[in-house]
Amino acid sequence: MVRQLHIRKTSRRAALVLATVLALLAPAMAQAQCLSQSQARQAVQAGEARPLGSIAGRAGGEIVRAELCRQGGQLVYILSVLDGGRVKERVIDARSGQVLH
């Protein structure tokens, strides 16, 4: 019984954290123009962006959401990353793999 309550509290907390992060990401994503899946695939095939798998190790946690977007004249991956029980945003240059923030 106690374990079930702990799991429910943890699940609620995780849902609240995720909702908060998504709310915070909305303005950042509004400034970026994100590509459709087919556009992202074409960008990778054309060498404009590295495949997500090649930069996933730089994300600093488990990627729970990823989008390839044009932001400030360059392609970036905007990632939601689960790190230490918290969801954090990472922006990674899609061409170089450099973590921007």
Explain how this protein is built:
The structure is a single chain. This protein is an alpha+beta fold and 101 residues long. The protein has one domain (2-93). Helices cover 43% and strands 30% of the residues. It has three helices and four strands, in the order αβααβββ. Strands 1-2-3-4 form a four-stranded antiparallel sheet, with helices on one face. The model has no long low-confidence stretch (mean pLDDT 82). Residues 1-32 form the signal peptide.
Strand tally is: 4
% residues in beta strands: 25-35%
Number of domains: 1
Global Rg: 16 Å
Helix content: 40-55%
How would you classify the helix and strand content by structural class? Answer: alpha+beta
Shape: elongated
- Looking across the biggest beta sheet, what order are the strands in? 1-2-3-4
Number of alpha- plus pi-helical segments = 3
Would you tell me the overall average pLDDT?
82
Summarize the main sheet.
4 strands, antiparallel
The H/E string reads HEHHEEE
InterPro entries: PepSY (IPR025711)
Keywords: Signal
